[in-house]
Write the structure tokens for this entry.
Amino acid sequence: MAIRVRFAPSPTGDLHIGGVRTALFNYLFAKKEKGTFILRIEDTDEARSTEASTGIIINAMKWLKLNWDEGPGNELPEYAPYYQMKRKEQGIYQKYIDILLEKGYAYKCYCTPEEVEKMREQARLAKQPPKYNGHCANLTKQQQEEYEKQGRTAVIRFRMPKEGKIEFDDIVRGHVSFENALLDDFVLMKANGVPTYNFACVIDDHLMQMSHVIRGDDHISNTPRQIHIFKALGWEPPIFAHLSMILGSDGARLSKRHGHTSVLEYRKEGYLQDALINYLALLGWSTEDSQQLFFGNSLIENFSLDRCNSSPATFDPSKLLWMNGEYIRSKSDEEIYNLFIDWIEYTNQQDLIKDWDKDLLKKAISLEHEKVKLLKDIPGLVDFFFKELSFDEQAVSKVLLSETKKDSSKIVLNECLRRLPNQQDFSPEALEKFARDLATELGFSNGKVFHPIRVAISGRTQGPSLFHMMEVMGKDEVLKRIQFTVDKYFNV
RNA sequence: GCUACCAUCGUCUAGCGGUUUAGGACAUCGCCCUCUCAAGGCGGAGAUCACGGGUUCAAAUCCCGUUGGUAGCACCA
């Protein structure tokens, strides 16, 4: 059997972390099984669907490299997604409504939304499940004409069997069974002629020959309805896999109030595409040995649907952050530089670095590479290379001007000013020897020499390895900065 | 309310009846390394496997029930 799966978001907002996870599992399954992955935009909610949202979803999918392999045309190099509203224009859904009506599996219902709501209300009061009561299920031709004369427009409802049950085997959940009696005659097509989700979804899954439907657990109660439609049309339903939900730290389904939920926000924060993917893959899926990091193609190679967990997972930002650091460290200096430049452009911060020498930036980033957890950390880590020297007050008071260190610091910095101009070899090794020799000669601890130099040239106590930093800065700049520091704090 | 699903360290998870004094990862704590910050190394603490009852020589693992959590119950998807 050819493996064919889809991600079918509704374009009503940002692409959500939970949505990405669903897309990812479909993608991984398709790649692992050498199948086909499709993107289908379920835009049948005309009130809430927006083009902006569609654009966001497509861009996010591209950024995440969750590329789909097929589209309505065969346009290359990039496929467009399928759009249900476009398919509706082609009369695809109406065709099957007619068949269902013809065969008696569906009927026209003339009740208004208000009337239906009233029914539900009554059922609730009677402690019954709030269902449509089948008022229009068996109207005669004359009754239908009468309603139409009143100007009522009909919706199409599915005629649900009153007895029996629907059972199916879910890859994640195992055997699942629902009583038909609990289901009501749900709407297939709205009064405006637009198919509902449950209907359009079935028609498309069949027509697009989906072998598996991998989606969130929140859809599991729609599945029996959908299977009824498949069967009414004489079609074999796909194999279902319902993924567990992703929860926020308070145990409720992940939502806005848990902080960042949109993929794009993670991109803005400076998370890496592959780190986010790796983290999300581990939410509800694992290997036998609980492997954490999956570089390159190993996620695809290791993935299998039957190792998906059926219990919900709580999203843990601190683990994602750790993982992002791991991915950043796994990349070359060159790659991180390029990723940083892309990120600057994506976040429109070109002004921030426009006066920065790119060669120096590259070197500075490589010095701080292993410290970076998010791309957005980089400016704060390296900006002192480019900006005029500014001092961290704590650094000054603790290292340069404290009672126990101010004298030695003054001596060290003045010695640097005196000797460094003659220092021919400005390699880290030579500079380290220079500093250690100086310490020995002056009878100071290494720290009493290294620390003031660090503060004098960077303005802070934290930073790259001192001698690498000096090399990258260059002799002239180092001397200039030390002179500036001495003038500011010691020559008063 | 009805229905479904779920239940192992704070979090993600391994576990498929005996190899389990329940393993790994994040977070946390301590130590080491060290020119700072990181990274790295080593180690600690942290789970009576939700609870109760079975089945079995043997159960985190199988069955039943209870409780709790989550989701669904639209002319939304």
User: Anything to note?
Assistant: The longest helix of chain A spans residues 17-32. The mean pLDDT of chain A is 94. The two ends of chain A are 84 Å apart (CA to CA).
